Amino acid sequence: MSTQTTKILVFSHRPEVRETIITAVGRRPAPDLARVEYVEVGAIADVLYEVDNGTVDLLILDGEAQPTGGMGLSRQLKDEITNCPPIVVAVRRKDDRWLATWSQADAVLVHPLDPLAAAETVAEVLRGLALPVVKG
């Protein structure tokens, strides 16, 4: 079995939101994908640092983060970063999906998070990265 891991950055100013996202997605979103290592950040500067240094494979951004929400941050990253990692935005209301589309997010999660739906959504985005597949 491969020791390859996928690094996912989870951004929210609230630690309990980061924990909810990590718990819902899990350490292995699908059996055919590598295990996940999470990078938890609570500040925009930390998100920018990780993205600029190319240390993460995927970002999950809290759409309700303060003072800057994940949707605005997603739009900024997609506009300014060449080869920006895929971004999943977590929103509070189903009706906010259109804002996530505006933000150029690759996928959307809606609170309350359903662990099956969250894991599958993240797995679909990860599969699109053409990362090494774990056989086992």
Automatic annotation (TrEMBL):
This is Response regulatory domain-containing protein. It comes from Lentzea sokolovensis. The modification 4-aspartylphosphate is found at D62. PROSITE patterns: RESPONSE_REGULATORY. The keyword Cell inner membrane does not apply. Keywords: Phosphoprotein. The keyword Phosphoprotein applies. Residues 7-126 form the Response regulatory domain.
